[in-house]
Structure to design on (280 residues):
């Protein structure tokens, strides 16, 4: 087929661009390799510029039903007391309103907007070139392995850190590993933590255990997204990490309420940044 734009990757960047181009009258095809949203939730904070774009694409009330929640502040528990790290007054004085979100939900809402054609479970495997210019992509259905081609006037790469499109354009990017893994989970919002306020508990044994602590970030409908930042070695030294984790949970009743009987690390969804990130 031939189209105006083929966007490789249905992340937040690709989906927003495709929607704006579609609303501008362009014919757009989005290729997204994953056939379904990733399992589980992870926390994400979105800043005012991002929210302006999201609210320009759909009414704020609709986004707030399921996907985003205005954040009132951030608290920090240092093992002895709660320190208000970012207060509602501070945010108001700075004129900044961050929103917390479950990114999987936000991406799904964007992919459903509908001003473009979404091809799910389809990946770009090579670039088509014509007279030295990129003229589309070779594609493969991830389930059937069937291959085909999409010719496009413009080919957009929003296909992540190791972008096939970027590499085909000859643009090099050095990356380095992010030093920590995150394990994530969804929880009911605990009564002891103020609504719409993120909380981080620091682990006193973080240096020896490799487990930094626990963060919970509020989501709509009295839910929360939890995150435990930890060193990868925790996955290999499970028994000692488990003992340290148990002591950390036992020290605070709210942590116990949030974690319940989940065992670290295997009862959590591991969110890795294995592909690395750019130096700058
Ligand atoms: C643990 C974690 C926490 C984060 N926290 C925050 C935060 O709090 N606030 C914030 O603003 N940002 C945060 N980020 C960063 C944010 O998630 C990214 O900046 C953003 O998702 C990048 O969006 P993107 O659309 O450019 O690319 P991506 O989200 O990387 O999307 C790329 C898409 O392309 C698809 N794809 C890849 N290759 C192909 C191919 N060959 N063919 C078809 N599809 C392909 C992938 O499946 C993926 O869906 C966080 C990231 C991580 C990993």
């Amino acid at each position: 087929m031939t189209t105006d734009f083929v966007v490789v990757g249905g992340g937040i960047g690709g989906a927003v661009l495709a929607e704006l181009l579609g609303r501008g009258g362009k014919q757009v095809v989005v290729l997204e390799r994953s056939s379904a949203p990733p399992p589980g939730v992870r926390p994400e904070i979105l800043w005012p510029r991002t929210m302006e774009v999201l609210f320009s694409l759909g009414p704020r009330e609709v986004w707030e039903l399921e996907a985003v929640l205005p954040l009132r502040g951030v608290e920090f528990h240092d093992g002895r007391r709660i320190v208000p790290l970012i207060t509602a007054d501070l945010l108001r004085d700075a004129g900044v309103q961050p929103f917390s979100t479950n990114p999987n939900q936000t991406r799904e809402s964007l992919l459903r907007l509908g001003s473009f054609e979404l091809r799910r479970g389809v990946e770009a495997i090579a670039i088509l070139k014509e007279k030295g210019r990129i003229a589309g992509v070779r594609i493969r259905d991830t389930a059937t392995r069937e291959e085909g081609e999409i010719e496009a006037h413009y080919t957009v790469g929003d296909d992540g850190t190791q972008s096939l499109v970027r590499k085909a354009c000859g643009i090099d990017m050095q990356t380095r590993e992010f030093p920590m893994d995150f394990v994530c989970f969804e929880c009911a919002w605990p009564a002891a933590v103020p609504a719409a306020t993120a909380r981080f508990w620091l682990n006193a044994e973080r240096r020896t255990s490799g487990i930094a602590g626990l963060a919970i970030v509020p989501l709509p409908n009295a839910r929360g997204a939890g995150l435990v930042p930890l060193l990868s070695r925790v996955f290999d030294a499970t028994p000692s990490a488990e003992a340290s984790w148990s002591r950390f949970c036992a020290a605070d009743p709210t942590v116990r309420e949030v974690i319940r009987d989940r065992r670290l690390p295997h009862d959590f969804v591991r969110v890795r940044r294995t592909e690395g990130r750019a130096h700058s």
Summary: The mean pLDDT is 92. The chain has two domains: 2-42+102-168, 72-101+174-280.
